[in-house]
Queue: 2 jobs
Job 1
Amino acid sequence: MTTSVPVIVRLLASSVSVASRAGKIVRDVMSKGELGIIEKGKDDYQTEADRSAQRCIVASLSALYPKVNIIGEEDSPDNEGDVASDWLVSEADKEVLSLECPANLKGVKEEDIVVWVDPLDGTSEYTQGFLEHVTVLIGISVNEKPVAGVIHQPYYKTMMGTEKIMGRTIWGLQEAGVGGFTLAPPPDSLVITTTRSHSNPLVERALQVMNATQILRVGGAGYKVLQLLEGNASIYVFASPGCKKWDTCAPEAVLSAAGGKLTDILGNFYKYGAAESHPNKTGVLAAVNDELHSYALNRLPQELKDTLANK
Ligand code: AMP
Ligand code: MG
Ligand code: MG
């Protein structure tokens, strides 16, 4: 790896390789069948896959980029320490390494970067066998904004002749675009994607006012944003607290690199500085373009926005 490549591009290329290794850990834990489920809070679970994938990602990235501030969902004193050498990834994706770095990011230093890691997004779905909903998320932010991100799907299947390849890695970089999949236009009619395991009356009220032809209930913030990117849905609405910065950083980076927009349900961008609180208290509103984002924002009643803002 040449050091003339700007750090943002190197970090994104490393994150692509690391996410893929973490995805293999997620599959290995499931095949062994010992999930080691812990209840962190109401409707909030952690498994051995969440813990191990996080250790792989944090150990690998912090060895390569010691001054980058990495914040992971499963950060805890119990989940630290040495990791096996085959979990330490030093490779970097060649295609991403050759990307042209946007001019405003060329001078960014390691210490200017905050990385938000969700080692396994969609844990409820993972434990319930909806494996295609599971993603590994690595979001890279600078000056509070998500500028690059990786969404890895450990259970995505591709056939190469008769051989089955597991997993694919989607990435996005501000101004440079997206890769790892084929971007598709939104569906002809209004399809909204939302939570399948964390609904409540507020979430349902926000869905009712959208006048959608279809509601696609899937797990994980990563997988929902993939529904937008692949043309299966045009808007993602979640009018509830519950998502955290590690859920939205990578998806927001990839979506915005593809021309979309992710905010809270008041239309405000979340900030991703290291000192920010973790919860996304005012929900999530994302769309494939500005026009559909404005449509959804205007449909949401003020009283519903006020309820979330004052929670
Ligand atoms: P979902 O859309 O329900 O699949 O959630 C997307 C992400 O936000 C996942 O990482 C969830 O664990 C998290 N999340 C959403 N709502 C809640 C909640 N009520 N409690 C805990 N985590 C939540
Ligand atoms: Mg998550
Ligand atoms: Mg998670």
Note: Residues 43-44, 121-122, 195, 197-198, 219-221, 238, 242-243, 247 surround adenosine monophosphate (ligand 1) (CB under 6 Å).
Job 2
Amino acid sequence: MHSVVCIKQVPDSAQIRVHPVTNTIMRQGVPAIVNPYDLFALEEALRLKDTLGGTVTVVSMGPPMAEAALRKCLSYGADDAILVSDRAFAGSDTLATSYALTATIRRIMANMPVNLIFTGKQTIDGDTAQVGPGIAKRLNYQLLTYVSKIVDVNLEKKEIRVERRAEGGVQLLKTSMPCLITMLEGTNEMRFGDLDDLFRAARYPLKIWDREAAGIDDVEMIGLKGSPTVVNKVFAPKPRSERAEIIETQDDDPKNLAVTLLAKMFTQNPKLEREIAKRAR
Ligand code: FAD
């Protein structure tokens, strides 16, 4: 069983601010973390390895500092890690990113067949949720999005059954492998890596592939040239002046609740009361 998990290093969004004058994202001093959604994908791949054996390879496309994110994944128990890093990738949008990652995965497959590809549902910085589907499309693989549980994997029949969270319910889906799964958040809890994995992660000879090593010949497909998306403006939404208020009541009769609410509104806005009374006449 060989799973490839795509992980992205992202700035800890809880600490990100938008510059009030230039409207650019202020990244200085913001710690970089593994995209939290990707950890649910990694844990699921590790659980499959626990039950079926095999290998988990983590892949990230990013600047050299993304090595830290990959080492973190190794410390949780991933077996191999590949950082795809090249100046030629700078400015890549989701189309170019999925192109580069697909080429990388094809290279990995040339050495060892891959049964499953995992991505997170989305990232916490780009938030597009496009990269996973982009890779599946390019590889012509079945795409299983919003997967909440892997029910079982039949390696002999090359089949997988998963639960997928859909609006209003859960779907049980079966498909053939290899396929790509985008893993939903909150579906598992990342394990603590053991001491052996921690030491191994620190010393592991992580692979760093440039454009050529990743098998990308056509530079028109990556970086700014391969990126038709243009981000025109980034801005923080204006803070709302009114504050939300929680009204606590023991009374769960909707009529009484409505009366309480109206009374509150009229106290705050007496004009509104007069207006409604006028219309009611
Ligand atoms: P999503 O589609 O939300 O991610 C879904 C899943 O895909 C993730 O959970 C993860 O599992 C996987 N995934 C996503 N990205 C990666 C990755 N890099 N490696 C491995 N797995 C991944 N970003 C920069 O850092 N530098 C730039 O110079 C830059 N220039 C850009 C220029 C343009 C015009 C645009 C539109 C975007 C640019 N970006 C840049 C942002 C970059 O395109 C996105 O960060 C990237 O495509 C991933 O998109 P996303 O964050 O929305 O991921």
Note: Residues 179 and 192 are 28 Å apart (CA to CA).
